[in-house]
Design a protein that fits this description.
mainly alpha; globular
Length: 293
């Protein structure tokens, strides 16, 4: 990772370390929240937000920090709930036991609930942004994470288990389940930076490609990666009888579609590079399709 992204990541991780304060209730809730929030990961969503904002409005990443934390909280809550026995029933996440394996199911559920609500507290209390900008961000994040976004995609995914689904349905699942929060990361930066509609449209199209790239790569790694490299159980999609890009299209076709989306994303960055320094987004794009975990 280059120096600029390392600096953004260090700033984000430092802020994240102080994001959950102790309550007066003296329960294990905060401990459970922090366990999953600090379990590691590449932080690609907050990095996307901060890198895009830095591209559009250099040296203004502080304005995006609280929104980036809120986004990571939403993402983390979704992982805690996804891992539960009622859904994917996973025992390992980022190389560590999943939240419910450490704290039990009921506390894992409540930790996810608390992270979800804490996210909106973080944005609504962000005094570095105008009230109008905060309302736009809360609205966009609600849409991305709710029944028309991530939760809706997860529901369609669960309903599709043990069923033959077509490519269109699979794309709908992942456009919402995976793509919605990736799209929000970039959309949030455009909201904070107050860019014009044309730039916003190009960046959101870029984000849509990223979402598909991330998911196809995930599907490939689930079948052809290793548990040691991934930090989670491989073959879980097959065990849960889920359709993926690989099971539906075969490895060669899935890799071909992946390459096509990479090329189209690169073309968007090439156009944007005439006005902006796209170095960090170029790096993150490569991270998405070259990653091994």
């Amino acid at each position: 990772m280059n120096q600029s992204l390392n600096k953004l990541l260090a700033t984000f991780n430092d802020a994240l370390d102080h994001s959950i304060e102790k309550s007066q209730l003296h329960t294990q809730l905060e401990e459970s929240m922090i366990y999953s929030l600090k379990a590691g990961g590449k932080r690609v969503r907050p990095l996307l937000l901060l890198a895009t904002l830095d591209m559009l409005q250099p040296k203004s990443e502080d304005k995006g920090l609280n929104t980036a934390i809120a986004l990571e909280m939403i993402h983390t809550y979704s992982l805690i709930h996804d891992d539960l026995p009622a859904m994917d029933d996973d025992n390992l996440r980022r190389g560590k036991p999943t939240n419910h394996k450490v704290y039990g199911e009921w506390l894992a559920i409540l930790a996810g609930d608390a992270l979800l609500t804490k996210a909106f507290e973080y944005i609504s209390n962000d005094t570095t942004l105008s009230a109008e900008t905060r309302i736009q961000l809360v609205s966009a994040l609600s849409l991305a994470s709710g029944h028309q976004g991530m939760v809706g995609g997860q529901t369609l995914d669960m309903q599709s288990e043990s069923k033959a689904v077509d490519l269109s349905t699979l794309e709908q699942i992942h456009m919402h389940k995976t793509g919605a929060l990736i799209r929000f990361a970039i959309e949030a930066a455009t909201i904070i930076a107050h860019v014009d509609n044309d730039i916003q449209k190009q960046l959101i199209t870029f984000a849509n490609h990223l979402g598909i790239i991330f998911q196809i790569k995930d599907d490939l790694l689930d079948l052809f990666g290793t548990t040691e490299a991934l930090g989670k159980q491989t073959g879980s999609d097959d065990m849960n009888d889920k359709s993926t890009y690989v099971t539906l299209l075969g490895r060669e076709k899935a890799e071909s579609i992946l390459a096509q989306h990479v090329e189209e994303a690169e073309q968007i960055l090439s156009t944007l590079s005439q006005t902006y320094n796209t170095e960090n987004l170029d790096y993150l794009l490569k991270l998405f399709y070259q990653r091994q975990n």
